[in-house]
Amino acid sequence: RKRAGGGGEWTKKIKSEGMGEIITRSHMRGRRWIELGQEQQRAYVMRLLDALEVTDRDKRLKVARAILYLAQGVFDECDTDTDVLHWSRHNVFLLYDMGVFTALLELLSMEMDNNQACSSAVRKPAISLADSTELRVLLSIMYLMVETIRLQTEDDRPEWRTAREAFKTELGSPLYNGEPFSLLLFTMVTKFCSMNAPHFPMKKVLLLLWKTILFTMGGFEELQEMKVRGRERLSLPPLPEDSIKVIRSMRAASPPASAMELIEQQQQAKRGRRSRRPLVKQDSLDTYNERDPFKNDDARDEEEDGEEADSGIEGEVDPLDRDVIIQPPPPPPPLRPPTESASLPKGLPWAPKVSDTETLVGLPRPIHESVKTLKQHKYVSIAEMQIKREEELQQCPMTLGEEDVDETPTEILYLGMLPNLSQYVIALLKLLLAAAPTSKAKTDSINILADVLPEEMPITVLQSMKLGIDVNRHKEIIVKAISALLLLLLKHLKLNHIYQFEIVSQHLVFANCIPLILKFFNQNIMSYISAKNSICVLDFPHCVVHEMPELTAESLEAGDSNQFCWRNLFSCINLLRILNKLTKWKHSRTMMLVVFKSAPILKRALKVKQAMMQLYVLKLLKIQTKYLGRQWRKSNMKTMSAIYQKVRHRLNDDWAYGNDIDARPWDFQAEECALRESIEKFNSRRYDKNQNGEFAPVDNCLQSVLGQRVELPEDFHYSYEMWLEREVFSQPIQWEGLLQQAQ
């Protein structure tokens, strides 16, 4: 949002050459856009739409840039940032009302099918910004329209609210060549990753894809509301709490002591000095009136096991890691009425759940008499009801009939993605791997920098620094878009039907998503969270409204004033949540976390003092504790205490004391094959319309069957007698056998 989707070089051109000579004033007889009336503005947009249909490529690009200028808020006529945002919102709704989005979609489809541009890009040794100019302009306009219309404000006009709902329905419906708009963008991703269109600007495509899915399906708050309504339809008891509010009320805690801190404390103790107490400023973080589990008040409590000390990748403790707590940034002006704040509970934050009332493992003997009470509080998820219903439909297809499936945006998108689902998943993971900070450049890897590298490489130190910041920022945005996109897809598919979620999860697992995410976190995570790959004075709309100060190497090196990069923190939380989704209740996948030695990597992520990120790290540690052994739990008691304090409890889960190292064989293939069989049965029953032939009713009436007209070949009457002799008269009939069978 800060750089308005990437019209950077275009906005500089406008500022230097003047708006009147380039785009609009020549068409509006010298009058300013903000001085025109509604009808005059509509007439001008209509002329732009007519000009979009010209065959001359340069003229068409010029008109598209004029539309981009309107969508960006006619900043040449504005004096403040607020004015730019106001006119941008006004113009975007005007453009949608005039049908500009449909016209842009036709141009985008034409650019996608431009074989000449694709073949030219494939032959080029180095692809630059110049190869994707038209695509970037089109995608920038479409991104601005989707994001602006998606966001609601209190002062929206009634016609704007109506337009928002119409646009949302339009994007989520199969109105574009029989498929939703998101599927078109998925196709662009796969074409890019298959090297058939290396000039596609992937950052813009991924951002637009993420925002489109967010708009059509809904965000986390809409998901929570849909979950509540879904439980009501299934006559399930309401949720015990709102998970979003619970997480927002949590506070961050101090991380466990690192190996370096423990060694330093021991050395100081040997010299007779008073042991240093790291992180002493965390007393105010004693959450829920309990002792902070991460407080390291005794140097003898060793937190780090030997394996972590050996495999650590950072050799020093970041100063940010000692006494700084990541707090949310100051809230922007409210776009919607503020919700009521959740008060901090005095006990544990989560209500416990019971998923099994038959097995009494983990419960003390006096509680055995309370099984009846447990059954009254048993938690049944929507997924369990969906699995049970699917089993009934598989067993009684004729009795229960066909299932009524709601045509929701999620269902429509899943149906469109299903034939090429594995290709979409692999393409997204390829892009995530290429953009990860821990990845090393390879000659055969995809080039995600095609829409950030200029035609002429920098020749000065200042230009090189600016390009380096742009490249890092470019990769961070790609990681952010992919992580948010995958998480949204998984959550919506799980709510729509559990087996839709399972097939996407299995494709992710088979494409090595679990080790990829662990590799992402196997870095100095505090450095990644506090990275400053942005230049404030170049952010939109500041760069086009205010005078540009002179950039120096010192100012670029200093970065912005923000202490943390919220973009990277957002990406880390999303990736942790995806990892949780993939491994939850999956024994074989949990064992993958153990085999890949994820515990030391995850414990290092606890250094980020942000409550939500710590919660999902602790969840991942909790599911592996009984596989890590008693010694690991003994040497990591503070982490175990943090899990107890912050993570939801399952009353009959033996995570804290079970030893399941050799109790069950790790049969990864068998578990995944059984799951795949259930998924294929579901897809075949619901989406394969040809498989219902064996269940068609059979006509048992002799008169009706003999009375049917059968089409025979023309030469049948010539060989009819031979057929009777061979097939009827010459075949002996065992009448005794028939009579015995009848008896």
From TrEMBL:
InterPro entries (UniProt xref): Far11/STRP, Far11/STRP_C, Far11/STRP_N
All residue ranges annotated as the Far11/STRP C-terminal domain in the record: 364-720
GO CC annotation terms, alphabetical: cytosol
Segments of skewed composition (Acidic residues): 299-318
Biased composition (Basic and acidic residues): 288-298
Alphabetical list of Pfam families matching this protein: DUF3402, N1221
Protein name (database record): Striatin interacting protein 2
Organism: Oncorhynchus mykiss
